[in-house]
Amino acid sequence: MDRERREFLWKGAMVTGLGALGAAGTWIFSDLWMAAHKFSSVRWVPVASWNEYPQDCVVPFPEYKMAIIKSGKRIGAISLECTHLGCLVNVGDRGFFCPCHGSEFGPWGEVYSGPATEPLPWYEIREREGKVWVHLGEKIKSPQWLEVKNEPQISRGKGAHEEKE
Ligand code: FES
């Protein structure tokens, strides 16, 4: 009787333990999957088609703290986060202006006047399937321009690889 009872309790404990292990594993796996999914979707963001930008313009995306700069046939993505204390800078006639403490930056983010001492950084940028994509994961020091040689083809919405062939 004692032996049967011990076996019963042992089997019960095993089933409960395996159930708890499975639940924990599922929770950890789903948490990791969600984190990976969020991570990948946050890093690259599409910011409209190439042909939606007028010639020689600065189009701010305050939600991403970033602006698209189109200059001739090249396009870049500059950070709008002030290098002094991180306020959102405004687009002005001469470049960028920080409303918090008055730092001024030139059209390519160079410091015109402080208190900021570092230029505005840039983001990696790509064209894919007719859209301009910006990599928000890491800021880079110098502009990375996306050169598009044949603008009308890109406006048809094909990928960069298809365009070149
Ligand atoms: S945060 Fe921009 S000047 Fe201070």
What share of the residues does DSSP label as strand, in percent? Answer: 25-35%
Distance between the termini: 81 Å
Number of helices: 3
CATH architectural designation of the largest domain? 3-layer Sandwich
Helicity range: 25-40%
CATH domain class name of the largest domain: Mainly Beta
Encode the helix/strand succession as letters. HEEEEEEEEEEEHH
Enter the CATH topology name of the largest domain: Rieske Iron-sulfur Protein
Please give the radius of gyration in angstroms. Answer: 26 Å
**Major sheet description:** 7 strands, antiparallel
Average pLDDT taken over every residue: 77
- Shape field: elongated
CATH superfamily of the largest domain: Rieske [2Fe-2S] iron-sulphur domain
- Derived from helix and strand composition plus strand pairing, the structural class reads alpha+beta
Could you name the ranges where pLDDT drops below 50 across 5 or more consecutive residues?
Answer: 33-39, 152-165
Total count of domains? 2
User: What ligand species are in this complex?
Assistant: FE2/S2 (inorganic) cluster
Number of strands: 11
Q: Overview of this structure, please?
A:
With 165 residues, the chain is α+β, with helices and mostly antiparallel strands. The chain has 2 domains: 1-39; 44-163, Rieske [2Fe-2S] iron-sulphur domain (Rieske Iron-sulfur Protein, 3-layer Sandwich), CATH 2.102.10.10. It contains 3 helices and 11 strands; from the N terminus they run αβββββββββββαα. The protein has helices at 2-43, 151-154, 160-164; strands spanning 44-49, 57-61, 66-71, 74-79, 90-91, 96-97, 104-105, 111-113, 122-128, 131-140, 146-147. The strands form 2 sheets. Strands 1, 2, 3, 4, 9, 10 and 11 form a 7-stranded antiparallel sheet that branches. A 4-stranded antiparallel sheet has the order 5-6-7-8, with no helix packed on it. A hairpin with a 2-residue loop joins strand 9 (122-128) and strand 10. The longest helix has 42 residues, at 2-43. It starts with a helix and ends with a helix. FE2/S2 (inorganic) cluster (FES) binds at residues 82, 84-85, 87, 98, 100-103, 115-116.
